[in-house]
Amino acid sequence: MKPITQQEIADYVQANIQNFHQRRLDSLQKLKLMNVVKRKNPYLFKAKNINTAAEFVTTLLDAHLSSQEEGIFGGFLEGLPFLFVQRYITVKNLRQRELI
Taking Cα atoms as reference points, which of 60, 62, 70, 66 lies closest to residue 33? Predict the structure, then answer.
């Protein structure tokens, strides 16, 4: 089995990166401030010396995006091994046909 090329990986990324960004955007559009605030410890913000509304919202958005991106990017990367599996199955099927 010949190795996956960088071009095949680049093609996968090109084909799927839009979905990654769309999911990030969807996550932000569905975000409700009250839902995020309920999950956070207010004393943590005081300890971090966050005193203005702008700092508070920025911190909340950064934390939300960071958390969401880990899951979304993880899903994005989980699709990458399918390139290898698909290649392996294709090669295996071709070899079996040659034997028949």
Answer: 60
